[in-house]
């Protein structure tokens, strides 16, 4: 059964993970600093605010946390404003869920001002009931709090709420918290690991009717 859907943004609805793969390196390069190996893996599960704290401490940056956040946003804002695209089928998938009366919210680690611009560019913003960000809630996706807030907004129960995630850590958090999880394929995620923490695995977002049928039948199986 599915009455509510909580979508991640980057890598799930938006084809943007390639940019995020290098944003920390690019930001440090703008300051004339060479990033240490493995920075992407360190920053990946963090909110923007947490990234700023880490970079300031790890690289001894003579900037405030707010200035670092603004600098990172400056690097990525142009991408979301002018270049980002929806993943194939994403718009039609959201429209299909809407036709079935499913509530749709967004739960993202990306800063609100940035992600809203990206959703506008990709044509997805009107299809969302609400947006929740890790930075505004003061959490990351290793905690299920952001999913709980989104679920409460839709007025659905945990077992009838599906979380769509491309990242293993987010999918695992939702899975362990009792949500139904749809793992969405993205080349920047570990697909085999994602399958282990997903009730359904979606190679893409082009088959909304097939997904809906499976979701409605899931509890009967």
Describe this structure in words.
With 221 residues, this protein is of the alpha/beta class. It contains 12 helices and 6 strands. The chain has a 6-stranded parallel sheet, sandwiched between helices. The longest helix has 18 residues, at 65-82. The radius of gyration is 17 Å and the shape is globular. The model has no long low-confidence stretch (mean pLDDT 94).
Summarize the structure in short.
Helix content is about 50%, strand content about 10%. With about 220 residues, it is α/β, with parallel strands linked by helices.
Helix share bin: 40-55%
Categorize the overall geometry.
Answer: globular
Distance between the termini: 11 Å
Major sheet attributes: 6 strands, parallel
Low-confidence stretches: none
SSE order: EHHHHHHEHEHHEHEHEH
Structural class: alpha/beta
Average pLDDT value?
Answer: 94
What is the tally of helical segments?
12
DSSP, total strands = 6
Radius of gyration: 17 Å
Strand content: 5-15%
**Oligomeric state of the chains?**
single chain
Largest beta sheet: what is the strand line-up?
A: 3-2-1-4-5-6
Layout of secondary structure:
Blueprint: E1 4-7, H1 17-20, H2 23-30, H3 39-43, H4 48-58, H5 65-82, H6 90-99, E2 103-108, H7 112-122, E3 130-133, H8 134-137, H9 145-154, E4 161-165, H10 168-176, E5 180-184, H11 191-196, E6 200-202, H12 208-218
Parallel strand pairs: 1-2, 1-4, 2-3, 4-5, 5-6
Helix pairs in contact: 2-5, 4-5, 5-7
Keywords:
globular; 221 residues; alpha/beta; 6 strands; 6-stranded parallel sheet; 12 helices
């Amino acid at each position: 059964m599915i009455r509510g859907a909580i979508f991640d943004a980057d890598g799930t609805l938006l084809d943007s993970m390639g940019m995020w793969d290098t944003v920390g390196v690019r930001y440090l390069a703008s300051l004339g600093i060479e990033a240490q190996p493995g920075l992407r893996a360190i920053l990946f599960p963090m909110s923007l605010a947490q990234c700023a704290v880490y970079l300031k401490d790890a690289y001894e940056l003579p900037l405030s946390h707010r200035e670092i956040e603004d600098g990172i946003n400056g690097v990525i804002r142009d991408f979301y404003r002018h270049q980002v695209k929806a993943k194939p089928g994403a718009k039609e998938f959201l429209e299909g869920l809407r036709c079935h009366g499913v509530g749709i919210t967004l739960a993202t680690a990306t800063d609100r001002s940035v992600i809203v611009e990206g959703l506008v560019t990709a044509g997805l913003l009107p299809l969302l009931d609400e947006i929740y960000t890790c930075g505004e809630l003061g959490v990351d996706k290793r905690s299920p709090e952001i999913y709980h807030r989104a679920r409460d907004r839709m007025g659905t129960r945990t077992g009838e709420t599906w979380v769509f995630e491309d990242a293993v850590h987010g999918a695992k958090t939702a899975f362990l918290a009792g949500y139904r999880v749809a793992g969405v394929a993205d080349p920047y995620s570990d697909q085999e690991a994602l399958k282990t923490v997903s009730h359904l695995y979606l190679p893409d977002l082009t088959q909304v009717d097939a997904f809906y049928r499976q979701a409605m039948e899931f509890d009967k199986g």
